[in-house]
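Re: [ENG-882] Designed sequences occasionally contain unexpected residues at chain ends

Forwarding the minimal case from QA. Structure tokens:
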């Protein structure tokens, strides 16, 4: 276990390196921080931190920089979540409040996160599997053609065309709409198949084929993997950190293009607290020089999806964690009110 003083020295090194982009020397540390000890003691503490793998010396004559292990300890023990200022919170609320639908909410969230953190922002669409049904609408397009519209509690809207085996009148359509909604509104998607399985039998024989076709389309919509959707923004921000990537930025960009990789990373986020994956903790090799800060968001107490940012390991962890958490909270409120 490191002593409290050495933890203070590590915190100072991380803060200075993140702020200046330059390796940190003992002289600079004692000048910038009130550590309460002599430069010789700081040098000794730095030697211990280096020996234990928390900091490293990139060049023989240079100061020290934090390692992945050093950043990990900084985040776990030392980094509080930096609260956003009142103007920042107002800006978030005003920007997100203008959203007109779910696509707009997600798009605005990505732009906002990228601007606040100056990193790459990643937002997952709300998962259908965790959603509940808000309403099912059925519209007649032709005597034997319908449109099915499924609206979820997260504001997601799915539309499907239904070709009926026989003409279906307006009266029958209104009856089916009413009975269907009475069974499924407010219920979780996973429960819907069981709730509607005997519905066709309650209709006249000539309408049962159409009712079954509508239900089959509804159930297909529920199980489709449409929730595996991500939106990424701010990739250009990475170009500001070219020197933070040891060889080239290309592996990072290639990893960001693989949505499966990003979904897996976001999947590791906790439901409520902020999750931080640093450097080699990211299983994908292309992201070994990055950190991923992520959190779940949703209406009520349950997360329906994840959002986060990807940036170099030399990042402002308290500020980034605070921004990610605040944005997730506002998005959750919007979904709850929509």
């Amino acid at each position: 276990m490191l002593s409290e003083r050495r933890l203070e020295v590590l915190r100072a090194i991380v803060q200075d390196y993140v702020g200046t982009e330059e390796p940190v020397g003992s002289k600079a540390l004692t000048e910038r921080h009130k550590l309460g000890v002599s430069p010789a003691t700081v040098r000794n503490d730095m030697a211990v931190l280096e020996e234990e793998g928390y900091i490293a010396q990139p060049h023989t004559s240079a100061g020290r920089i934090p390692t992945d292990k050093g950043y990990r300890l900084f985040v776990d023990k030392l980094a509080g979540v930096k609260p956003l200022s009142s103007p920042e919170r107002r800006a978030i609320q005003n920007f997100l409040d203008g959203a007109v639908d779910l696509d707009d909410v997600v798009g605005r969230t990505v732009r906002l996160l990228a601007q606040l953190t100056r990193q790459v922002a990643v937002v997952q669409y709300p998962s259908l599997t965790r959603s509940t049904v808000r309403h099912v609408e059925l519209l007649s397009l032709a005597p034997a053609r319908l449109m099915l519209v499924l609206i979820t509690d997260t504001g997601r809207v799915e539309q499907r065309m239904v070709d009926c085996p026989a003409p279906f009148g307006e009266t029958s359509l209104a009856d089916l709409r009413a009975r269907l909604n009475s069974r499924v509104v407010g219920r979780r998607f996973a429960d819907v198949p069981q709730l509607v399985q005997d519905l066709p039998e309650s209709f006249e024989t000539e309408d049962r084929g159409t009712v079954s076709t509508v239900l089959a389309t509804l159930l297909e919509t529920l199980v489709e993997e449409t929730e595996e959707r991500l939106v990424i923004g701010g990739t250009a921000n990475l170009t500001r950190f070219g020197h933070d990537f040891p060889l080239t930025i290309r592996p990072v960009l290639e990893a960001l293009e693989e949505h499966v990789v990003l979904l897996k990373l976001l999947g590791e986020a906790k439901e409520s607290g902020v999750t931080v994956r640093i450097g080699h903790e990211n299983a994908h090799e292309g992201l070994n020089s990055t950190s991923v800060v992520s959190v779940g968001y949703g209406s009520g107490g349950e997360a329906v999806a994840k959002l986060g940012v990807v940036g170099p390991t030399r990042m402002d962890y308290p500020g980034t964690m605070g921004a990610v958490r605040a944005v997730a909270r506002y998005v959750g409120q919007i979904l709850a009110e929509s």
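QA comment: On inspection the terminal residues look reasonable. The first strand starts at residue 55 and ends at 56. Proposing we downgrade this to a documentation issue.
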